[in-house]
Amino acid sequence: MNKVFLSGNLTRDVEVRYTQTGKAFARMGIAVRRMFSKDKDAVDFFNLVAWEKTAEFCGRYMIKGTRVLVEGRLQTSSYENKDGVKVNAVDVLVDNIEFAGSKRADSSSGDDYSRPRDTQPYEERNTAPPKRNDYGFGGEPIDPEDTPF
């Protein structure tokens, strides 16, 4: 069985790219604390790779420093670097990733996990705002300014 669970902080912003066939993939790193004893600990660093919707989710909502829980599997690969040296690499292929910390309203970095990283208004993104839908409830339309909450 090849199953990995990690809890740690992202070490860099998520980098989302697309394959030639249009599949999204994201690369990111995670730092995981490892305890030796009560007085000693160390940090291990792992490369994470997410695909498709998971990759797009990570790219939209996660930034460097985000505390996450990762479920995935290990995959090894090897390649030659620019100096011609063979390099072996181990990546964690992400099956599931979740926020491990709570959103903080008083955060100096402005972390609010409920908002995507792209906070520009619709007009600046060159996309149309969501269409209004009255959902066929009947009766008169309700003006949001008239609601007590």
List the helices and strands and how they pair.
Elements: E1 4-10, E2 15-18, E3 24-35, E4 41-51, H1 52-61, E5 67-80, E6 86-99
Parallel strand pairs: 4-6
Antiparallel strand pairs: 1-3, 1-5, 2-3, 3-4, 5-6
Question: Which key phrases capture this entry?
Answer:
single chain, 149 residues, mainly beta, five-stranded mixed beta barrel, 1 helix, 6 strands
Description:
By secondary structure, this protein is mostly beta strands. Mean pLDDT is 79; it is low at 119-123 and 132-139. The protein has one helix spanning 52-61, and strands at residues 4-10, 15-18, 24-35, 41-51, 67-80, 86-99. The longest helix has 10 residues, at 52-61.
Short précis:
The protein is 7% helix and 42% strand. It is mostly beta strands and 149 residues long.
Strand composition percent: 35-45%
Shape, per Cα inertia axes: globular
Estimate the mean pLDDT confidence.
Answer: 79
Encode the helix/strand succession as letters: EEEEHEE
**Which structural class matches the secondary elements?**
mainly beta
Radius of gyration, in Å, reads 21 Å
Instruction: Count every helix, treating DSSP H or I runs of 4 or more residues as helices.
Output: 1
With strands numbered from the N-terminus, the spatial order across the biggest sheet is: 1-3-4-6-5
Distance between the termini: 52 Å
Number of strands: 6
User: How would a crystallographer describe the biggest sheet?
Assistant: 5 strands, mixed, barrel
Helix fraction, binned, reads under 10%
Low-confidence spans:
119-123, 132-139
